[in-house]
Amino acid sequence: MTRRTLATLAVALTAFAGAAFAQPRTVSGTVDLNSPGAVIQPEVYGHFMEQLGSGITGGIWVGPDSDIPNTRGFRNDVVAALRALEVPVVRWPGGCYADIYDWRSGIGPRGERPVTLNRWWGGTEEDNAFGTHEFFDFAELIGAKTYLSINVGTGTPQQAADWIEYVTSDSQSSLARERRANGREQPWRLDYIGVGNEPWGCGGPHARRLLHGSSEALCGLHRPLRTGVRHHRGGPQRGRL
């Protein structure tokens, strides 16, 4: 085993009054070069998307008819840059916006989607051209895992469960058939779910029972997923559905 000794590190301790220095102290240690280091999960370097300014509209999504070079509406330069970065996971639709987002506003033909007001960020008008299908298409383009932050602020547990079924079900349920009618035959891979955004801040505060209800509504999913609930007291708590 290879070991290298770190020796003779002088530490000068300055007296509180600043008038004199203490005698140098010798500190030694060893570094084991053959010992494996800590493993950092790639999701730590994940990215975040929200309808805020030009973060999505104009910045990522320009639409297939734009003069800006694009692939199915996504800017080619942005897609290339994010591929080069090897983005591990992307979270959407927020952020504060997640807790007012109605997923049904972002499915179906783009020209028929409702225009809604973004109450969190200046009351801007959102045409919802970037919705569920566009998000998962974008994640596939850049090779990233997917993370949905479901609406706990203004949504219901049933709406959350419906959204996840729409995305992930390979059954003949009404929601799965609706997804197919909207152009996606196979279910998407959904890797992570966030139950609400910030229960202590722009998404809440939410009662624990509401967060728990949303989590319980997702327990009928057909495959294991990572889910997280961020509480206003203490740190994040995560589990597996």
Helix and strand arrangement:
Elements: E1 3-11, E2 25-32, E3 47-48, E4 70-71, E5 74-75, H1 76-85, E6 89-92, E7 116-118, E8 124-126, H2 132-142, E9 145-150, H3 157-168, H4 174-181, E10 192-195, H5 208-217, E11 226-229, E12 237-240
Parallel strand pairs: 3-6, 6-9, 9-10, 10-11
Antiparallel strand pairs: 1-2, 4-5, 7-8, 11-12
Cα-based radius of gyration, to the nearest Å: 24 Å
User: What share of residues are in beta strands?
Assistant: 15-25%
By DSSP, the count of extended strands is 12
**Biggest sheet architecture:** 6 strands, mixed
| Shape, per Cα inertia axes | globular
- The helix/strand order is EEEEEHEEEHEHHEHEE
Strand order of the largest sheet: 3-6-9-10-11-12
Helix content: 10-25%
What is the terminal separation in angstroms? 43 Å
- The overall pLDDT average reads 82
Counting H and I runs of at least 4 residues, what is the number of helices? 5
Structural class: alpha/beta
Unreliable stretches: 1-20, 229-241
